[in-house]
UniProtKB/TrEMBL annotation:
Residues 1-28 form the signal peptide. It comes from the Bacteria. CDD domains: PBP1_galactofuranose_YtfQ-like. GO terms for cellular component: cell envelope. Keywords: Signal. Residues 56-305 form the Periplasmic binding protein domain. The keyword Signal applies. PANTHER family: D-ALLOSE-BINDING PERIPLASMIC PROTEIN-RELATED (PTHR46847), GALACTOFURANOSE-BINDING PROTEIN YTFQ (PTHR46847:SF3). It is found in: Cell envelope. The lineage of its organism: Bacteria, Bacillati, Chloroflexota, Chloroflexia, Herpetosiphonales. This is Periplasmic binding protein/LacI transcriptional regulator. Pfam families: Peripla_BP_4.
Length: 332
């Protein structure tokens, strides 16, 4: 059966178009669906300053990894990263160096709440937007563009709810708090006290500065002062790293998993293992994997787009019942 030349030509043309589309689909680069408007800045233009506060905990290690991995994945122009070893003066110096360099955005995870007004004012005067990451600052909100992090007060309130459930007839607990003056420690302590039943007394609170090493002598001193079971029946620990130090001390003192009601914070692999082993009765989640959201906010700020003043991460509480099942899936 013969077909007209015209039809054949149109059929060939159609096949060629389909063929090209087919070829193009696998090899030709396609612009991202949300390609920025003409002239808008992209991630490849971005120079972002991240003056990390330290490397004190597994949480912090995971936070650093999230920032560095996201920067690499997005292919940003430059990540100006530094480690302040938990010293505010080092963080302030790092921010000043970034202002001097003329970075596009500063994403600051502040070690403590206070003492940031001057350097945030310098950044603002230099026209460099600042994202406060993780812990909060007491500086006026006009001095930075947004804050992304956990609701630390809620974390403390969630811990209180666990003690209220486990100690319905009341009792006494100890508190091992995080870095003095940090938004995380201040918030968790506040939240615990907001919601703890009046028949549960916090008989002592000492800082372990969020580190395993510093928690050990603190817990040893507390065991010299108070008799476990008699003077106190529970411990609230502001992060899993300190909790692992506490477990070392409790073991050395002959205390067994479950003898005390222990609630920790973060939900790291170490915390999950402590739940599997029966030491922790609950672990309040605090998510360090903030990299993708930090860079998304930074790009909006680079393009002069509005951002939410607060971005609070949604979190939960983890329990021993499914800790063994979840442990292999934990990203930090
Ligand atoms: C909380 C974060 C805290 C973690 C600790 O958001 O700042 O600092 O709870 C970390 O593990 O050291």
């Amino acid at each position: 059966m013969s077909i007209s030349r015209t039809f054949a030509a149109r059929l060939m043309a159609l096949l060629v178009i389909v063929g090209l589309a087919g070829c193009g689909a696998s090899s030709a680069p396609t612009t991202a669906p949300d390609a920025p408007a003409t002239g808008a800045k992209t991630y490849s233009d971005m120079v972002l300053c991240y003056p990390q506060l330290g490397a004190e905990s597994d949480w912090r290690t995971a936070n650093t990894a999230s920032i560095k991995e996201t920067a690499a994945t997005l292919g940003i122009k430059q990540l100006v990263f530094s480690d302040a070893q938990q010293k505010q003066e080092n963080q302030i110096s790092a921010v000043r160096a970034c202002i001097q360099q003329g970075v596009d955005v500063i994403a600051l995870p502040p070690v403590v709440e206070d003492g940031w007004d001057a350097v945030l004012t310098e950044a603002k005067n230099a026209g460099i937007p600042v994202i406060i990451v993780d812990r909060s600052v007491s500086a006026d909100k006009s001095l930075y563009s947004t804050h992304i992090g956990s609701n630390m007060v809620l974390e403390g309130e969630r811990a209180a709810a666990e003690f209220n459930k486990m100690m319905p007839n009341g009792g006494a607990i100890l508190e091992l708090s995080g870095t003095t003056g940090s938004g995380a420690a201040v918030g968790r302590a506040k939240g615990l006290r907001n919601k703890l039943n009046s028949n549960i007394t916090i008989i002592d609170s000492q800082t372990g500065n969020f580190t395993r090493a510093e928690a050990v002598p603190v817990m040893q001193a507390l065991l010299k002062k108070y008799t476990p079971g008699t003077d106190f029946q529970g411990i609230f620990i502001h992060n899993d790293d300190m909790g692992i130090g506490v477990i070392e001390v409790l073991k050395a003192a002959g205390i067994k998993p479950g003898d005390l009601k222990i609630v920790s914070v973060d939900g790291t692999r170490g915390g999950f293992q402590a739940m599997v082993d029966g030491w922790f009765q609950a672990d309040v989640e605090c998510n360090p994997l903030l990299g993708p959201q930090v860079f998304e906010l930074a790009l909006k700020l680079m393009n002069g787009q509005p951002v939410e003043p607060e971005v609070i991460t949604n979190e939960t509480v983890y329990y021993p019942e499914n800790a063994a099942e979840l442990l292999p899936t934990r990203k930090y």
